[in-house]
């Protein structure tokens, strides 16, 4: 190891330790007698002093030296940790960090004079001791030990901030105390013994892990991706061979490769706590600056994420946390007057759910003032007065995600530096995440971020254009629509040169992938539309062909191609060919879709996102011919069709329609008089292997919401009723409806080709 | 006097060279995936044992006439900080040893893309060897 390596090692280790120090000091302030935390801080500074002396960084050594003096007196109970001392120690940490950066950049300490800080620390060290140096420490340390673990608990519990490390090092002491048959007779130097115990546990933790270069991990990840491809090829060949040894070996290869892949993926995972551990300090400084009292709670700091994702959410998350502290939580006097505790609580929570990571940032502050949001949105011209008046409270809160929106009354240096919530949102969406905000006036705000676990391997839809394949990340995918012949002509409209698709009564702008990529246009009798979500609006991407969804390994593009903006990377397909991964946002931007009407649809899509994220059901709402407002689960719907009433034919008692070369039984809902209008709205439902057409009066909407059933009286085709969009709605039972159709005369149609969700997305056919 | 080894290759009727230490490997024609909208000198992407490598057509860079359709260009794969890049050349030549003292500045009358790309000229029997600045060779025209 040469000198440079030693310095580098020293820097890496010191940075890590300093991050811990911030957290420990803030925790200490609330729990000033925690001997074990003091001891840990002391050790860190002591090590730093030693190493910097050895490496001849004298300024660093001088600061660490006086810091160590102060800390040793604090540790031994000769001095009490108060606000000025905490401030001085934090200032010391900052100065050390500053010096380390200078060393990192130039290899030298910079010439900033530390003597002022040294004097300050010295003065605080020499201040009057709080009590007689010998007598004081004994009772303080004896007390907790004599009552065994119980009193230890509060020192752990109060914030649940304590990182895993703290738990580990405290536990043995507590257990030791519990097992001690003579708790009233502690060892002669309890403090010393405790610190030795703690240091042993720490060493144990350090021994079980090693530092690995991130580049090496990335390389391993690449190689594993390559191995997976080779494995796939081997498996393809061996399935045709009869040799049992080769069969068994290739199966083994298969298993080992899969496990290896999982293992390597795990090495790239880091706990979210590695970002969070900066927040206690951030919040402490903020509260001091704004004159607020804020308690930070963290839960799930050990939730793991791919490091590339962690990197991407670091800034947005910090911004949101600062925002909550600065704008969300009120000053103590305001809080008291509202009957809340004077300290505000900021809660961070992370957990895994459904293959995604959820991060919640909630505060018990004032919530978002929707009246002010409304006012501001109107002043800024983001919404019209009429529209704003019609918006729900929930819709209004979503407005803060619009670019150029900031409700902070005064721009402070804490937040509101032009980095708005729109940037936070864009950053989260760039990595395939979603963001949702809920706020209750006077009670606080909760922001939920949902992000994928990893960016390295993502599910994607593979499409073709002009002979090449392209992958579209599934997170952007809403549905697939295929139009043929007449339908293609009818559903596609030309609106002043822009092609649009009429999809369930909504106009969906269409973009041809070939046009966007500057490839030769293609005219065919059928149209494949991939409906995508870009930023805040949906659009249809017309492609030549849609093949399949696959898990793809995302590989970066060279720097010459990153700037193009339409590709998010590339991937290698099973046959060794390369497919470019489309950046959906970039495609939309290039096609000029994103900016227009951005404000208009933001609210709707944000709402939709929020709803999708909770446990909800998607319903197709329609008017039954009887006028009854009804709904069925969208899962059961294969297609929506408009049929001319004269196409309905009779076969015995049954009504059928010739539909795509087959016979489709037609079902009448109760109360249908049979007085058909010229065009019938038909919901084609799939149940098991049967397709039936259900005649309805009018399609109203597709909604997503939690269902609370009323009157669970199951009568005929009804499951019950529920309030959907504020209106009483009958929920119909599709299996009963399908079974009630006498289909004896009708050849059963396989529904594999129309099964909704076959690609993991809702497949629909435009009417 | 120090000498350097040059990996040589031809483009049209010209002889070029790059420092052999930059060269990772030389590959015959590879299947290529085109990148729509990319600058014209980017011929496509190749799959180099799972690594995605951008291939640059040096004929395009140097404004030389296009290769005929059936030509099988050779990939000279160079190491770079952010991975590897491939240079598409007509044919690969020998690795030659060049005395550093023989490196000459290209004549200042050299114009056009060649002036951006050629860093040194070496007089060899039978031909002039143009030593290429690889960073510029893969950069956009005028950069």
Can you offer a commentary on this structure?
The complex is a heterodimer of chains A (767) and B (143). Chain A is α+β, with helices and mostly antiparallel strands and 767 residues long. Chain A folds into five domains: 3-207, HPT domain (Four Helix Bundle (Hemerythrin (Met), subunit A)); 214-267, Helix Hairpins, CATH 1.10.287; 271-368 and 407-452, Histidine kinase-like ATPase, C-terminal domain (Heat Shock Protein 90, 2-Layer Sandwich); 457-611, CheA-289, Domain 4 (OB fold (Dihydrolipoamide Acetyltransferase, E2P), Beta Barrel), CATH 2.40.50.180; 615-763, OB fold (Dihydrolipoamide Acetyltransferase, E2P), CATH 2.40.50. In chain A, strand 23 (654-659) and strand 24 (662-667) form a beta hairpin. The longest helix of chain A has 28 residues, at 3-30. With 143 residues, chain B is mostly beta strands. Chain B has one domain: OB fold (Dihydrolipoamide Acetyltransferase, E2P). Helix content of chain B is 10%, strand content 49%. Chain B contains three helices and ten strands. In chain B, a hairpin with a 2-residue loop joins strand 4 and strand 5. Chain B is globular. The A-B interface holds A 222-223, 225-226, 229, 468, 517-519, 555-561, 564, 566-567, 570, 572, 576-580 and B 31, 33-39, 42, 45-47, 49-54, 56, 82-83, 85, 138, 140.
DSSP strand content of chain B: over 45%
Q: Domains counted in the coordinates of chain B: how many? A: 1
CATH class of chain B: Mainly Beta
- Beta-strand content bin of chain A: 25-35%
Q: Poorly predicted ranges of chain A (pLDDT <50, ≥5 residues)? A: 130-206, 409-418, 596-615, 745-767
Shape of chain B: globular
Topology pattern of chain B, helix = H, strand = E: EEEEEHEEEHEEH
Summed over residues and divided by their number, the pLDDT of chain A gives a mean of 74
Counted beta strands of chain B: 10
Number of helices of chain B: 3
| Most extensive chain interface and residues per partner | A-B, 26 and 24 residues
* Spatial arrangement of strands, main beta sheet of chain A: 11-12-13-15-14-10-31
CATH class of the largest domain in chain A: Mainly Alpha
Spatial extent as radius of gyration of chain B: 15 Å
CATH H-level superfamily of the largest domain in chain A: HPT domain
